[in-house]
Amino acid sequence: MKFLTPLLFAVTASVASAQSAAVKTKVACVGDSITQGVGAPGDKSYPAQLGTLLGEGFEVKNFGNSGSTLLRTGDKPYERQGQYKAMLEMKADVYVIKLGTNDTKPHNWVKREEFKPSGFALVEAIRGVNPAAKIFVCLPVPAFPANFGITDEVIRTGVIPQLKEIAAEKKLGVIDLYTVLQGRPEMVPDKVHPNAAGYTLISEAVRQAIAPVAVGK
């Protein structure tokens, strides 16, 4: 019998460890280059920093794809990228959507009437794989004031109002990243992509938004 006790302890510990891993809250970060982490050295993307902030109870994955648009008819629709399929396959508990920046490019924004329907389609696709998923839409960070065809004016007066309407109509959480980096040009060296310090502020804003909701999942 004395040999069974260590064995029983090992089996119990193994089961407890497996159960602990199984109950992790899965977080999918959906977006463009600002989700991917362009502009920061190494892996200082906001999803990477978010994973550290949230800790062991969370599994955070980065599904950012540089240049992607929310517009399904944009020059690089997110729904046609490999990350789109992968983020749906994750069936995450929490989805954080940060798209819209590339939609401000003139050749994309001429299709602005298709922006909201594209947003609705993305939300419905996520709810199709996990109806219980908690979905947050991020208001894009500011541009200072423009680069790569991306302009702050269109972010402010075009994209953000429509994202707010999508969030209201689909009952999504809103994370205001525009305000987080507003007035901080030193954190956005190329006028569009944050540096590591900028991504730190973004990750903290996302953590504050999703952690209380995720705990009650």
Description of the structure:
The strands form 2 sheets. Strands 2-1-3-4-7 form a 5-stranded parallel beta sheet, with helices on both faces. Strands 5-6 form a two-stranded antiparallel ribbon. It has one domain: Rossmann fold (3-Layer(aba) Sandwich), CATH 3.40.50.1110. It is globular. The termini are far apart. By secondary structure, the chain is an alpha/beta fold. The model is unreliable at 7-13 and 15-21 (pLDDT under 50). The protein is built from 9 helices and 7 strands; from the N terminus they run αβααβαβααβββαβαα.
Question: What order do the helices and strands come in, and which of them pair?
Answer:
Blueprint: H1 4-22, E1 25-31, H2 33-36, H3 46-54, E2 58-64, H4 82-90, E3 94-98, H5 106-109, H6 115-129, E4 134-139, E5 146-147, E6 150-151, H7 152-170, E7 173-176, H8 177-181, H9 196-215
Helix pairs in contact: 3-9, 6-7
Summarize the structure.
With 217 residues, the protein is an alpha/beta fold. The protein is built from 9 helices and 7 strands; from the N terminus they run αβααβαβααβββαβαα.
Number of domains: 1
Average pLDDT, all residues: 92
| Unreliable stretches covering 5 or more consecutive residues | 7-13, 15-21
- Oligomeric form of this entry? single chain
What is the level-2 CATH architecture name? 3-Layer(aba) Sandwich
Give the beta-strand count.
7
Radius of gyration using CA atoms only: 19 Å
Q: Could you please say which CATH topology applies here?
A: Rossmann fold
Order of helices and strands: HEHHEHEHHEEEHEHH
> What gross morphology would you assign?
globular
Structural class: alpha/beta
Strand content: 15-25%
Strands across the major sheet, in which order? 2-1-3-4-7
Determine and state the CATH class.
Alpha Beta
Total of DSSP H or I helical runs spanning 4+ residues: 9
Largest sheet: 5 strands, parallel
